[in-house]
Write a structure and sequence with these properties.
The complex is a heterodimer of chains A (about 180) and B (about 140). Helices cover about 65% and strands about 0% of the residues of chain A. In chain A, helix 8 runs antiparallel to helix 9. By secondary structure, chain A is mostly helical. Chain B is about 70% helix and about 0% strand. The longest helix of chain B has 22 residues. Chain B has one domain. By secondary structure, chain B is mainly α. The chains are: A mainly alpha (about 180), B mainly alpha (about 140). Chains A and B meet through helix 2, helix 3, helix 4, helix 5 and helix 7 of A and helix 1, helix 2, helix 3, helix 4 and helix 5 of B.
């Protein structure tokens, strides 16, 4: 039982993620999380504004059920299978965090961004909104996110997914190394 | 019955995302700093087994549970949409410290501010649908 409360090692986690993709393939579906955001838009009537959202969103209901499950899993994992501690990141990362004013005595997520009290700062809200906009816009533009391209697409040796993953890393590196010092 | 299976798959995915710490902003930050192997280990292991599974499915023409052949539709060939879209996504991934899967997981874990990220990611998807015909693909 002790194992469940510790953070899981990377080789177990990685293997389990591949198994999730395999089960979805065997169910005749595919592993992709960001397409649910398109389904949300279609279900809310976005098809009236753009033909991009004119689809039979009910055929993607299975993926919305996966989302419901993911939320339940997040609830159970955070409330019953962990102590909410900050991940054991490297000392070098802690030093980098100090330079952008994020405390290294923290929780699972940095309280400077994800605590209720942080929401009293308009800057935090802007960071969360801009982060979300970029994620949603970029994922659909690229035709997938980490699950669809980095896991499913690369597993299928698709060149488009390799280009997308290189793009993910260019964007992430620019954000962390160039923009973070300006933002925080 | 099938509906329960999808919820269970998601449930399992949520626990793996949370417990692997792939849903933690700190691990994403650390990954983009190249200061630990952890995230590369997760993605690398998932890919190694993922490639093996897909190879076996193709090699032995394994059918899905309902008896249909498993087809993985190839993505359309292009460079610009994957590169530009990828860069935009990467900027958001690093800033919010979560990609779409973990966003759902963290909503369930009860972090209220991540709801703002989820709502704006949906708006971002909507905006793409509006302007997509004007973008290079």
């Amino acid at each position: 039982m002790e194992f469940f409360y510790q953070p899981w090692p990377w080789y177990i986690s990685g293997f389990l993620i591949a198994c999730i993709m395999l089960v979805l393939l065997l169910m005749g579906k595919k592993f992709g999380m960001s397409s649910n955001l398109k389904t949300f838009c279609a279900a809310c009537g976005a098809g009236k504004v753009s033909p991009f959202f004119q689809l039979d969103w009910k055929s993607d209901k299975w993926n919305l059920l996966v989302v419901v499950g993911a939320m339940l899993g997040g609830f159970v994992a955070s409330h019953y299978l962990s102590n909410g501690e900050m991940p054991a990141i490297s000392e070098a990362t802690k030093a980098s965090l100090a330079s952008i004013h994020i405390s290294s005595e923290n929780q699972y997520l940095p309280k400077e961004l994800f605590s209720i009290s942080a929401l009293s700062d308009i800057k935090t809200i802007l960071i969360l909104i801009i982060g979300g906009l970029l994620i949603g816009f970029g994922a659909r533009y690229a035709g997938g996110c980490t699950s669809g391209h980095a896991i499913s697409g690369l597993s299928n040796l698709q060149l488009p997914s390799l280009i997308a993953v290189i793009g993910f890393f260019i964007g992430g590196l620019v954000m962390v190394h160039v923009l973070f010092p300006l933002i925080f | 019955m099938k509906q329960i299976i999808y919820i269970l798959i998601g449930f399992f995915f949520g626990i793996v995302m949370y417990k692997s710490e792939a849903a933690s902003w700190f691990r994403i930050y650390e990954m983009f700093q190249f200061q630990a192997f952890h995230m590369y280990g997760i993605i690398g292991t998932a890919l190694a087994f993922g490639m093996l599974f897909v190879f076996l499915i193709k090699r032995f023409q394994i059918k899905s549970f309902d008896g249909n052949p498993i087809k993985i539709a190839p993505k359309e060939k292009s460079f610009s949409r994957y590169m530009y879209g990828g860069i935009i996504f990467g900027l958001g991934w690093a800033l919010a410290g979560a990609c779409p899967g973990p966003i759902f997981v963290l909503v369930g874990a009860g972090y209220l501010p991540i709801v703002i990220v989820l709502a704006s990611a949906t708006v971002g998807t909507f905006l793409y649908g509006i302007v997509k015909d004007k973008l290079p693909h």
